[in-house]
Structure formats: C-alpha cells, structure tokens
Predict the structure.
Amino acid sequence: MPTLRGDSIPELRVLASSPPTRQTESGPPEKPGKPSLASTAEESVSTEFYSPIPKGYVKGRTKYVVVIGTVMSGLGKGIFSSSVAKVLKDKGLKVAPIKLEGYLNVDAGTLNPYRHGEVFVLDDGTECDMDLGTYERVLDQNMTYHNYVTSGKIFSEILLRERRGSYLGRDVQMIPHVTGEVKRNLRELALTGDNGKPVDVVFVEVGGTAGDYENGFYIEALRELAFEEGPESTCFVALTYVIEPKALGEQKSKAAQLGIKRLMESGIQPHIIACRASNPVTDVVRQKIAMFSNAPLERVVSMHDRPSIYTIPEELRAEGIDREILSQLNLHSRVNQKKEDEARKDWTRFIVGLTKPKRKPLSIGILGKYTEVRDAYASIDKALEHCGSHLDAEIEQHWLETTDLVSPELARRALEGLDGVIVPGGFGIRGVEGKIQCVRHCRENGIPYLGICLGFQVAVIEYARNVVGIKDATSTEFSKSGSPLISVLPEQKEIEGLGASMRLGAQDVQIEAGTLAAHLYGGTSVRERFRHRYEVEPKYIQQLTDAGLVFSGKHPEHQIMQILELPRDRAEGDDRPTHPYFIGMQYHPELTSRPLRPQPSFMGLIAASLARRHG
Ligand code: GLN
C-alpha cells in the first residue's frame, strides 16, 4: 500500500470536502451522500473491464436516455432533456436527470455569472449550473449533488482513490478508470435517484458538443455503459442544428450531417435525432439527415424555436418522441395513462395562463450588477414568468444598473414608471450606494419592494441610515470603517476564502404569526435556500426593531435575521414607517419558484404592484 494518504494532502482534503461546507449551527441538511472511497478488492482485479458496479445495482432495471449535442453548443440541451424527462415522469415513471459538465471546476461556486449564467444552489448546498434550475422547474423535483458532475469532480474522486491506494498498483488511465468513474456516478444515481430508491430512467445531458476534447471521456463512458447494460438499455438522442443561411433562404443539412457523423465516429449510433432550427425542419431535410445517420424518418424530428420552453413537453408528445423512446427502451409496460392525463391537465392550465395575451401590464425594475446578461438572474426571470401566468400580468422587466444613481433625485428618475422593484443577490460594493438610494425611494413612496439577499442587506442599511439615524451604517463587505450593520457571519470569521466560506443550501426559517411573511407563506415555518457570507449584526437588532423594522423570519434557534418587512399599518399614534409591500429575505426565494407553485414573496410583489397600478 502507498504510504501517502489522500487525507494527508490538504488540497485533496479540500476537494473531498465538496459539496460545499454548510453551517452546523443551523441543523444543516444532510451532507449529500458521497461515493465510498474505501479500497475494495473488486477494483484490483487484473481485467481490462474496470467498471465499478454499486452494491445492489441491478443491470437493466434502470434505463438511460442520453442527450448529446452536435454542430454547436447553446441548443438548449438542458431544456430538451428536462422536457423529455417530464413527459416520461408524467407517465408515472421515476426519472433522475444528470448533467455531465466538461469543465475542471469541482462545482460552479467560483464561476462568474457574467460568463456562465447564474450559480444555482440546491437544497443540499451544491452550487451548480443553471441547467439544474431548469430541471427542478420543469420536473418539479429537487436535485442534489448527485445530479451534477463536472470533470473536476470526477478527477478529484479518482485522485483521492489513487492516493488511498484503491487501484492497488495499477496505472490509472483515462480508460478504464476515468470512464469507470463516470459510469459509477451514473449507476449510483440510477440506484438512488428517487430519494434513495432506484429510478426508471436516468436522463444524461452531456455538456458541450460531440468532438470536443473535454467531453470525449464522457461520450466514451456512455458508449461503454450502453454496451455493458445491453440491448434496450440506452437511448441516444443527438440534438443537432439545421442552418438556414439568409442569403439562401433554405435549410441546409450538411452541418447537421457532419455533426452526427462525428458522434458516430465515437461509436455511438443515435436512436433519435432532434433537429433544432429557427423554422420547422422540412421533410426533405429530415429525409437527408435520416438517410445519412441510419435513423428511421419518424425518429428525426423538428425542434424549431418556440415562444416558451414550457410548451416543449407537449410538442414532444405531438412529435411522438415519447413513444419512440419508450419503444427503444421497452418501457411501454411501465406507463400509467391516468397519471399522464392528470399531469397534462395541470400543465396545460399553466401554459394557457402563460401564453394567452394578459390583461394587466406591469413594469418591474430589477436593480442588478450583471444587467447585460439576463442569464445571470435566470431564476428571477423565471419566478416572474410563473407569477405572470397565475396573476394574468404582462410583466415587463426593466434591468437597471445602479452605479450612477448616487442621489435621491437620480434614483427617483430611474424608478419613474415602475410598479415594483427587486434588488437581487449580489457581491461586492459596485452599485450599492445607488441601490440604497433606490430602496429609500421605494420605502418612502410606497413602491412595492422585494429585496433578495444583498437586497435584504441594503434594506437594513437604508433603514439604519435614514430611519434609525445611524448615518455611517454599512456592511463589512463594503467598508472597514463605519457602523457594521451587516457583518460576516461569526462562524465564518475563521474560514475566509472562496466558496467554502458561504452559508449554503436550505435552512429552516421560523416566521412570526400575523406578519406579512406568515400571510404570504400561509404558515410559520418554511425552508428556503441560502448563499451568503454576511448577515445582520445582532447588536443592532434592537435599535432597528425599536424604529419599526420587523424581522418576521428568523433562524429557529440562533439570532440570524432571515426576513424583514414593514407593516401595512400601525396603531393610532404610532408614526413609524408603514408600507403596502416592503419585504426582504436573506435567502434566495427565486430558486424555489416552480411553474405550478410560484414562490409566495414574488406572488406578493406582483399582486401588490398590480394593486398599485390597476387598483
Ligand atoms: N454579498 C452578500 C453576502 O455575501 C449577499 C450575497 C447574495 O446576495 N447572494 O452575504
């Protein structure tokens, strides 16, 4: 056995501690189960088949649908994959999606939203790609650490095993060890993807495109998986793109053909080919693609642009993709027709609300830092969309950069014509003073306000400065001097650093009865998702509440303020501020909004904004 152990190498220990650290003070969610790294004899056998099979795994019980992109990225693989998964879930099948990401980051915690879109946070504290948000929303199902794999995660697992001597003297290779690790992750999900129980179908989305260097080992692992699992185990779907050059005015299939060929060179024969395109793909083009890729014509389908992603599941049914997948995987016998009819009814109601012309226009301002990149706030965008469907509101979003709004007058002008305002989460000092000006304007003028995470913190600072009279109120994130109304979490003071020092994932929030928050949630205990490093400094809480700020949501045991609000009215003679809708939360409500269950604080904001504009 090697003497050097993974545990003795600090860097590897850090890798091993992913998923991210969570607070112990707050009864954290369970640490996501991680594969056991113990050395096992089965790993040492000298055969070319290194394919670790988790204990209890039964080959053939779980099927796999694998979605691989060709021609180019950005085709909406996640949307496609989640929509297909939804159609199968509606039929009563248990499904678990997984995203295989090519990059070497162990998770998305340190990725810049400007480049990669928002960092989505799961209940268990995993920081991941925004595609996981799509899966949660479309499937109405919580994801975990196990639904998200990066090359960095795979390699760190392998290096740990290697340091622990688990490979017993073998040279560790891309094939079979790296591919073996990928298969292990997939099979573990198959075995446990339904809250610890096996699922019927695992949906695998491979990041990037066929032919990329960085996902080559994933594609090879999937080829091996299909081989090992046997016939009727795996359905490969190639998502391709049909170009339509303006100058020609017709669709051309060559790029799609070449892309699919690239996939076939990896030993994978796609069973279904979904053609993305701006317009419906013509029969001639479909025939060409079918002919060059060995796929029957009825399995080459058009997936042209649609106004909403939520209509895709219905369109997949119309194209018969569900039937073809069930046939490929021999799954027809597991379908529950009655369940599907009910699920379709609920979904259709939501779609009708979403796509019909709405009666009530509404302007909502969102004061963010990454305003040029909508993906940086994808979940807020979606949460508003959900509310619009349920409340018959045509919500126009105005994204405002606040760096220059340094005076009350500039803030007033910037917010003119807006019916409601959101300050979303954010990091760093840029634009903060402008946000504080805007919060003040909303508070003093009865404009509905929803503050999220940073938006909660700036609301506290604003109240402290302009109502309590602590003129130099600030956060230690922005300034070392002044009164630190917001400061680093006590238990975090020790562990400064990137990613690892944040309070992440779902936590309980205790809500005070009779408050706006209790009214919105219809109860006094909720669980919401956090991602922050700073919080309200306890020593100022009394002053703030004496001056009328209500902390209506708190940690069940500790002095952590999690929701703030202003009351609608107060007793006679009490002239402290009131407001029709002023609420902020230290957590991220947008992460848990679902099409059929829109998030209450967003619903409240939209309802209050509608009341303000339309009476
Ligand atoms: N920067 C703040 C903090 O770390 C807010 C974080 C956020 O908005 N997600 O506490």
In short: The pocket of glutamine is lined by residues 425-427, 453-454, 477, 531-534 (CB under 6 Å). The chain has two domains: 40-348, 356-614. Confidence is low (pLDDT under 50) at residues 1-45, 495-500. The CA atoms of residues 205 and 477 lie 38 Å apart.
